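Cross-check.
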Amino acid sequence: MICRYLLLYKPYNVLSQFTDERSAPSALRVTLKNFVSVPGVYAVGRLDLDSEGLLLLTDDGPMQHRLSHPKFAHRRQYWVQVERQPDESALRQLRQGVTIRNYQTRPAEVGAIAEPDLPPRDPPIRYRQHIPTAWLEITLSEGKNRQVRRMTAAVGFPTLRLVRSALFLSGTCALTLEGLNPGEWRELTRAEQRSLPQ
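Predicted model, tokenized:
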């Protein structure tokens, strides 16, 4: 069987699944089926409704398991817009790991970055004239529910916008958002497929 591997730029306010069982028919939320019509593929991991960015979709069950199970610790990179300007102490706490809901997060790669070149979010984030914002790049090797948002809140800098910007495969290969706009997807190249963990 030839497996399919798709890379999708999930827009804001879209469920990371193909059905919405929790909503009444009159209030169905937007799902992946609004953007991807390839049968039999499912998301590797997930992004929350209010998060954007990279989702890998596949019909390869063993690969889905290897890329999403916590024991394999695959790295995921996020661009995070936060309220106010985090100081070095807050960045150090994020790097070392913080306690969220009685769980100590693993050490993370965290640094301040310039505002990335992203399409405007629809709807835009709330704007407050007297409260500055800053962008961080955070790379995790775990994926607890709403982890990035809870981490930045724990050190006093709430997340305003969250975009998964890269998924790291085996070796140095990373899948990125390059060339995709929100709602667009593409097949993995042969080289990218060869970099998938065995």
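The longest helix spans residues 88-96. The domain at 75-168 is CATH 3.30.70.1560 (Alpha-Beta Plaits). Passed to J.P. for a second look.
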